[in-house]
Amino acid sequence: MAVSDLIASFILEALEDSDGSAELQRSVLADKFNCVPSQINYVISTRFSPERGYVVESRRGGGGYIRISRVQLTDPRSVIMHTINSVGGSLDLRTAAAFLSNAVHQGVLAERDARLILAGIGDNALHSLPREIRDTVRSSIFKYMLLQTIND
Question: What is the residue range of 128's domain?
């Protein structure tokens, strides 16, 4: 198993042991897994991101910590609003797909709806736009399409 997988498993276990929220020290994790702190940052940014349903707070410096919390929303409307609020002014297709996958996994969005949203914001649908504005337009369309799923 790769070091990144071991780190992710350790963090997931810490989250399960503490009701969905864990406070960890980057340097302690780096020592435990015999890696550099940037590898801890990599694992957190790729596996514990908002599009995967996590909120990460970080304080650097001596005694700094990383607090990771699993978003525990049961109301579909709240999950969709959390997703919309997590999307900034720019959204790449890979991140959008991760948000949609998480929504389907949580049971708040039908797989068919997710596929339709993905088609509507995909590169094929936005091909006539200049590349430099596609992610901005994608973000706007994504948010409005998600809003429509809760307004029905």
Answer: 76-150
Predicted TM-score (pTM) of this structure: 0.64
More confident residue, 52 or 112: 112
114 and 145 within one domain: yes
∠ at Cα 18 (9, 60), nearest 5°? Answer: 75
Which pLDDT value is given to residue 56? Answer: 87
Query: Which pLDDT value is given to residue 131?
Result: 93
The three-point CA angle 17-21-89 to 5° equals 145
CATH number at residue 53: 3.30.56.130
Same-domain status, 85 and 65: no
Cβ burial of 33 (10 Å; 0-12, 13-18, 19+) is: middle
Average pLDDT of the chain to the nearest whole number: 88
Distance CA 22, CA 14 (A): 6
Task: Output the pLDDT for position 62.
Answer: 64
Amino acid (1-letter code) at residue 132: E
